[in-house]
Automatic annotation (TrEMBL):
Location(s) in or outside the cell: Cell inner membrane
UniProt keyword terms in alphabetical order: Cell inner membrane, Cell membrane, Membrane, Transmembrane, Transmembrane helix, Transport
Organism: Jannaschia pagri
Highest taxon of source: Bacteria
Family: Belongs to the TsuA/YedE (TC 9.B.102) family.
Membrane-topology descriptor: Multi-pass membrane protein
Pfam families: Sulf_transp
Main location: membrane
Protein's UniProt name: Sulphur transport domain-containing protein
Regions that span the bilayer: 12-31, 52-73, 79-102, 123-143, 163-188, 200-225, 245-274, 295-315, 321-340
Amino acid sequence: MLIDLIGESQAMALVGCLGGILLGLAARLGRFCTLGAIEDGLYGGSWDRARMWGVALGGAICLTFLAVAFGWAEIDRSVYLATSVSILPAAMGGLMFGYGMAIAGNCGFGALARLGGGDLRSFVIVLVMGLSAMAVLSGPFAALRVSLFPEVAADHSASLATALALLTGLPDWAFGIGMGLIVLSVALADKGFRQNWTAIAWGFVVAFAVASAWVGTTWVGRVGFDPTPVVSHSFAAPLGSSMMWLMTASGTAITFGVGSVAGVLMGAFLGSLIKGHFRWEACEDPRELRRQIGGAALMGIGAVLAVGCTVGQGLAAFSALALSAPIVAVCIVAGAALGLRQLITGLRMA
């Protein structure tokens, strides 16, 4: 058995790495990007990338709850559903993350994808975002965060599907699959977009990467002996965890998040080679560098408060229909819209 050969930690990392490779390829070959989708829609007059994002979301919800129906995924064990929803930190964190993403020019996932293509400017974003996330999650500001926003275990699974199941007596997976199909139908409502098979295909690739992580980590937890978390992809704290693992690997077990980060870098590198887009780039404008550092710091803090980023809350938590996901997603979009407006209208940035 695979677990016996490589161990549980390595198996978790392998699950993360395989899904991360798919995400990295989707970013480089399919142009999957949350900030790009928002910017195209608000200022480019094109909603195709937003619709691709909708395909990814709807597909991830359908696949996740299909896995739940077959008993392949135990999403109730995820952090998104095991803790009660705190609206204030979710909203604050989402706004901070969205605004930081806009002024930095990328989210954590996007920065990894660009770094895989040789963009050293994104390396700054990855480093600063990872450090700021860890400082708030487990570093010197962790005690302040916990005192201001204590986590409370949920009495029931903090999922919309579970809430509807308790009200009606129907299985939660039925509501999940139904909601996923609704999201898909909205995303595919535009006739022109339905002809864009490339965007639709890459949207489903992202959906598969998100849902397969729930299945893979559930499987490792069942066949292994040590307790392992049921998780999917997110790119805030795992950036910091990856840096810590690189420094302390001899005494620290590798995790799903480390594998996921490595996978995105590998997939993005491969995708950039396929496209012939790999090239080294560096920041030449000090003002741009300041924006990237400031935006990355805001993203790291915001992602910890919101318990996720554009991928972590916007796709992974949403695929489980976590009650926190719509709050965080709306606030991320609002923060990004504010940051983009500030940049595009030429207002002076710090």
